[in-house]
Amino acid sequence: MIRNNKLGFGMMRLPVTNPSDAASVDFAQLEEMADLFIASGFTYFDSAYIYHGGMSDVAIKKTLIERYDRDAFTLANKMPTFMVSAASDFDRYFSEQAERTGADYFDYYLLHDLDENNYANMRRHGGFEYVRKLKEQGRAKCIGFSFHDKAEVLDKILTEHPEMEYVQLQINYVDWESPAIESRKCYETAVKHGKPVIVMEPLKGGALVNIPAEAEKILKAARPSLSAASWGIRFAASLPGVIMVLSGMSTLGQVKNNVSIMKEFQALTEPEKEVIEQVREIIAAATAVPCTDCRYCADSCPQSIPIPDYFSLYNSHRLFGFNPIIHNYYRNLTLEYGKASDCVTCGQCAERCPQHIEIPEELVEVAKTFE
Ligand code: SF4
Ligand code: SF4
User: For ligand 2, what atom is nearest to the CA of residue 357?
Assistant: First the structure.
């Protein structure tokens, strides 16, 4: 179970040996990262059926199950609600997860990515009954869900399913007042229902690590020794009722940095909250596309367009201005994948996007910039 602190190891962005193959998890590097994480007193690892094409579950087996006592770490895993089309799918996906990870049970088991549509899908096929059964059987110790929709939908789900023990929300200081994400409203809804909160995307997929120079300057003036990432993590971890803050870690350096922030965690002071507000305004104005690189859209495109990679390049272009290296990156990607202008506006990607980005429209801007 969760011990002494609130930092969780998100397994959505593990190190890979081949940058164009998400399944090529670099197990040697991951072992080193997990060892440091656990040796520093942290225990929580967060996987999902779809992360790294299923390899995040395999990584759990190789890195944790086969190398540590089971009570040395806490496991969270998620049912892919958006892939369920019949009641029999639940057993199929859960059995696969149990097999891939080698885990007899998960400490935390979540219905993944509930929004209005996925919620209706779970009601239709019995998703809530299924996770309750897992809990009765001891195969899931605590049950909950991750969520990407408006606060009123969250309120409805928590009212209709009070048996859910916690909720995982996207919370970071840029999305706090965002009308698309409604971080603050969702957080307040969870608190109203008395549900503990697990935070995802505290650094908005890395966007709060490499922030504009003007914003960086403000943070450094306030606390010269603190990194930009530490402000993002402290913002989320300072909220009452937050029991865990997940950070998707890809390098040993990121583990070291996160561990050092959370080992000696200090909640934000009132003056620091004002500093964050200034920085939030600068970043919000500079971010063109609010993509978090979750890659939920990755397999949906019939034109093989690497959507989050293009948005990342486009955001860099908008933040830092023209840079021939960024244009070269774009050109190199188009040698292997579809161009932004190859989009046929089928809309399949946008349906999967938890950030509600109008992907085809944004790709038009990407094409104008890079082609
Ligand atoms: S709308 Fe465009 S980018 Fe999205 S899946 Fe269809 S072709 Fe691909
Ligand atoms: S476009 Fe949306 S679904 Fe795709 S990676 Fe970005 S945030 Fe995720």
Answer: 2
